[in-house]
Amino acid sequence: MIAHPSVLSSLAPTGRLRAVINLGNPILARRDAGSGQPVGVSVDLASELARRLGVEAEFLLVEKAADSVAAVNEGRADVGFFAVDPARGAEIAFTAPYLLIEGAYLVRDESPLQANDEVDRAGLRVAVGKGSAYDLFLSRELKAAEIVRAPSSPDVVPAFLEQGLEVAAGVKQQLEMDAARLPGLRLLPGRFMVIRQAMGTAKAAGQQAADHVAAFVEAMKASGFVAQALQRHGIDGVTVAPAA
Fold this sequence. Notes:
Elements: H1 5-11, E1 16-22, E2 30-31, E3 38-39, H2 41-53, E4 56-62, H3 65-73, E5 79-83, E6 92-94, E7 99-108, E8 125-129, H4 133-141, E9 146-150, H5 156-162, E10 167-171, H6 172-181, E11 185-187, E12 193-202, H7 207-223, H8 225-232, E13 239-240
Parallel strand pairs: 1-4, 8-9, 8-10
Antiparallel strand pairs: 2-3, 5-12, 6-12, 7-10, 7-11, 7-12, 7-13
C-alpha cells in the first residue's frame, strides 16, 4: 500500500507520523515494566503505518480517551485510537473497527444487583472514566441512575471504592483484573455494551488521508496482524472486528 505524496503530506505533515497513545486502556497500550516505553496493539499499528509510509513514528502518550480526542482535534497528533462514538465524530474520521471490546459493570459481592438491566435505577451511582466511551454511552442510555465521573478510566475502581458507589463501569478485562486482586468484588454477567475500537484521523486532514488509514486497518485485520499483536501482548477476551 504505497501512499500518494499528497496523502503523506496530510498524514505526516511534520515528516513523522505523530500517534497519540492512550495508556488508560490496558487492552490497547501500557508502559513496558522494564523500559518504560509504550507497548501494545495500538503502538504496533501506529509503528506499522509509519513504516509503510516511510517515516518514523512519534508517540504522544496520554492517560485519558478524552485527551486522545483533543490531541487529534487540535492537530497535535496525526492519528489516534478511539472507541467509535457519534459525540466524537464531528471532527474525527473513524476507520471501521479493528477490535471489539466489551464494557461491563462491577459491584460488591453483597450488592443486590444481579443483571446489567438492573443498574438503571434511582439511587444507584455508576462510576465511569470522564470522557470515556462508557461515559458517552451511559450518558445517553441511563435515565434514572446517576453517573459519577472519575478523572480517568484507571481511576474508576478507586473512586467506586473510596466514595462508596454502587457500580463501576469500564473495560471488562480491566474490571476482571481489579476483581481478582481486590477482595469482595464481582462483575455482573455479560456486558452492557460493545465498544468498536477504531483508528481515526482529523477530518481536516482530508478524505484521501482518511481512506488510506481505513484501507490500512482492513489490511491489518485481513493479514492477521491485529490478531498476532493481541497474542504477542497477552490480551485475551477481545475480538478482532470483521472486515468492513
